[in-house]
Design goal:
By secondary structure, the protein is mainly beta. It is built from ten helices and 43 strands.
């Protein structure tokens, strides 16, 4: 019966280690058998697991595997082994066919504890096919184990402490168990060759092995013939080791290799013949090494590659024709990824890869983009050129356009990332607008958007753009959203943060049917908008499109701006249709409303507007525009599903703060003119969140939370009587505030 064993599976191991369980499943012609093996190791210098073995039987006083150990049969199916008075091994067989092994160390042992486990359990499994021993503390492996498991197909040793692969030098006797020591160092491959006379007996002669995982160890070198006998090897992982050199012919007989993962090593040079005859190789990862260049013929025998990662090396130059072998690919790749990011390239070699879909060139030293750079890659879906020094996007003459980014041959392009470069003018993307979904231009020096008036609509029948990021630039206006390119209802995410935008192009507008008034900016054209980030700008008010025009909006970030006060109208929002009969309202007040869908009203989704870190010092709640909310089950129906976050603002805690507290607790609410005149609750107030909102004045409560009950108990309750009188409300400074101040009369819109 074939055996499959997982040494990652552990139930009780060293203190602090994770607990797991392991299963062996084998299928017969008419039956299947499940064997559960549990091994517990306590107080040992390393943790190991292994399956049961008939060859590891115990025979009285002295064990067959090692005369230094005494084997004792306790009772029933319980056996114990005592080795050198320090290590106690026990085995117990249960009725459910599970076998439990436990190893306890009473002191530091001279021999690695793994030796005892392998002696009685692991190294006799001649039919073992799958062995997972990842993420233990294995630093040495008995040589006998390396060549006594001839049926292994998959071997996982990820995350251990191996320093090198084993090469036998002496014969193994019953009384002397030769192990591979972590102290043995192999500085280079030539020194290894001198010790490899008996290589045919080593574990590396396994001819059936297909998957070998040696990543995340401390291996410093590989012998030339390390993989020579592994003619069926398909998947090899040697990533995250300390290997500085790969012998030229190390993979010479591994012609079935499809995956080679060698990232995070110390390679400085890669042989031109390393991939010779690797016609089946699909995935190659050489990232995070120290390689400075590759030979022009490096990929000549590897045209079947679909995933190529050579990022985060030290490439300053790549031969211009290095990717020429991929020009004849016959469609074997459904997706082709090329990652050359994190290098020092100053120009891009010819990308003759017709099937290329994902190109990552970020983190290099590119300064310009040539118009024909991608002309041989028509299948491109994503181009990442972020974190370079690009300041120029050259103009393709055939289109005669102003600084066109990518031309018409890219008929499938969906993602362009030009963030963290040195662009000063918004690049033209009109030739790819049919397919482009993500455009990232953040972290540049863009001050304007160049839309030529003669650009015809025929260049794009629709705008597919969903995500648009121009944060961390030097924009002062959003007037570019007035262009016809934004008429299409697809853009869902816009980031305009960290600019100089003040929405000065906003124009006053009154929507008569709802009796709402405000300032409408060009952002109202983005009718599909769900998230907009406007933080860290120069904005001093809330544009009315966020309140009444964008039905899909879920989050608005207006934090870190210059808003100083919230007016009555800023608190009112057109709400969703779930709690009122909008249809009757439509027909009664506007005969054209029957042409609209009900979801053309905002509030259909929960909306949060972040107003934190502004300069908001007061909230206007006029007595003749507020009402008391009677307790009951329908309190929430009197508010919209909009939340205003007011934290971290310098609020002046005068007498008006009591209205704020009652509003925050839904004891009172502002009312719209529409509701006061007609009774229709189409426009209702938002809910306010005053968490982290603190008083800046008067000095007696400076720095205290507005919602802090103790503040009002000690500082304000004794003076409540002075706040209300027949003529108005006295502020803390002694100024009498009427229901409509002079400032309100000048700037507040009707509401």
């Amino acid at each position: 019966m074939d055996a499959v064993y997982d040494m990652d599976s552990q139930v009780q191991i060293m203190p602090g280690a994770p607990k797991r369980s392991g299963y062996n499943v084998s299928m017969g012609q008419r039956y299947f058998c499940i064997v559960i093996i549990v091994i517990s190791i306590t107080d040992c210098s390393s943790k190991k697991l292994s399956p049961d073995s008939k060859d590891g039987e115990m025979n009285g006083f002295h064990c067959k595997g090692d005369p230094r150990c005494l084997c004792i049969k306790m009772n029933g199916e319980l056996y114990e082994m005592l080795c050198e008075d320090k290590v106690v091994l026990s085995r117990e067989i249960f009725n459910d066919m599970s076998v439990h092994y436990t190893m306890k160390c009473h002191a530091e042992t001279e021999v690695n504890p793994f030796h005892y486990l392998s002696m009685i359990i692991l190294c006799r499994l001649k039919k073992l096919e799958v062995l997972h021993a990842g993420y233990n503390r294995i630093s040495v492996i008995p040589e006998e184990c390396l060549y006594s498991l001839p049926s292994l197909i998959t071997f996982t040793l990820l995350g251990n402490k191996l320093v090198t692969l084993g090469l036998p030098s002496v014969s193994i006797t019953p009384t002397h168990y030769k192990v591979l020591s972590s102290d043995i160092k192999f500085p280079n491959s030539s020194s290894i060759l001198e010790q490899s006379e008996n290589l045919n007996k080593a574990w590396i002669r396994w001819s059936l092995i297909r998957h070998l995982h040696l990543g995340n160890n401390s291996i410093s070198a590989l012998p030339d013939e390390a993989l020579y006998r592994m003619i069926n090897l398909e998947h090899l992982s040697i990533s995250s080791n300390n290997i500085a050199h790969l012998p030229d012919n190390i993979f010479s007989r591994n012609n079935n290799l499809t995956v080679l993962l060698a990232s995070n090593n110390l390679f400085t040079n890669i042989s031109a013949t390393l991939l010779k005859n690797k016609t089946r190789l699909i995935i190659l990862d050489l990232s995070y090494n120290l390689v400075e260049t590759l030979d022009s013929d490096f990929f000549s025998d590897s045209s079947s590659l679909c995933y190529l990662r050579i990022n985060n090396n030290r490439f300053r130059h790549l031969p211009n024709n290095i990717f020429q072998p991929f020009k004849t690919q016959n469609g074997t790749c459904h997706m082709f990824l090329l990652d050359i990011s994190g290098n020092r390239l100053e120009y891009v070699p010819e990308l003759s890869i017709p099937l290329l879909t994902h190109l990552i060139l970020s983190g290099n030293h590119l300064t310009s983009i040539k118009p024909d750079m991608l002309s041989q890659a028509p299948c491109l879906l994503e181009v990442n050129l972020s974190h370079n020094l690009i300041h120029t996007i050259e103009n393709p003459l055939e289109l005669d356009e102003y600084k066109v980014l990518f031309s018409k041959y890219l008929i499938n392009l969906q993602i362009i990332d030009l963030s963290s470069n040195q662009l000063t003018v918004y690049p033209r993307v009109s030739p790819v607008l049919k397919t482009l979904k993500v455009l990232n231009l953040s972290g540049n020096y863009i001050t304007e958007f160049a839309f030529k008036p003669e650009i015809r609509r025929t260049l794009s029948t629709d705008l597919a753009l969903e995500t648009f990021d121009v944060s961390r630039n030097r924009l002062k206006s959003v007037e570019f959203f007035e262009h016809w390119l934004w008429d299409f209802e697809n853009t869902k995410y816009v980031d305009l943060s960290h600019n100089l935008i003040d929405l000065g192009e906003c124009s006053g507008y009154m929507l008569g049917v709802r009796f709402v008034w405000g300032c409408l900016s060009p952002l109202h054209k983005l009718t599909a908008l769900e998230v907009i980030i406007l933080s860290h700008n120069q904005i001093a008010f809330i544009p009315m499109e966020f309140q009444h025009y964008l039905p899909n909006l879920t989050f608005v970030d207006l934090s870190h701006n210059k808003i100083e006060r919230l007016w009555h109208g800023d608190l009112l929002f057109t709400r969703a249709q779930d709690t009122m009969d909008l249809e009757s309202f439509m027909f009664k007040y506007n005969e054209h409303y029957h042409r609209l869908y009900l979801n053309h009203f905002p509030g259909s989704k929960n909306l949060t507007i972040d107003l934190s870190h502004n300069s908001i010092s007061s909230l206007q709640l006029q007595d003749n525009k507020i009402e008391v909310v009677l307790p009951g089950c329908d309190i929430d129906s009197k508010f919209s599903r909009v939340k205003l976050l007011l934290g971290h603002n310098p609020f002046v805690c005068d007498c008006e703060v009591f209205k704020l507290l009652r509003y925050a607790s839904k004891e009172m609410r502002p009312t719209s003119m529409l509701e006061r005149l007609t009774g229709h609750m189409l426009v209702v107030p938002a809910v306010i969140d005053i968490q982290d909102l603190r008083c800046s004045k008067p000095d007696s409560v400076n720095g205290r939370a507005v919602a802090d009950v103790e503040s009002w108990a000690y500082h304000w309750l004794p003076t409540i009587g002075f706040c209300w009188n027949d003529n108005g409300v006295n502020s803390a400074s002694g100024h009498k505030a009427t229901s409509s101040t002079e400032a309100e009369a000048m700037v507040e819109p009707p509401a």
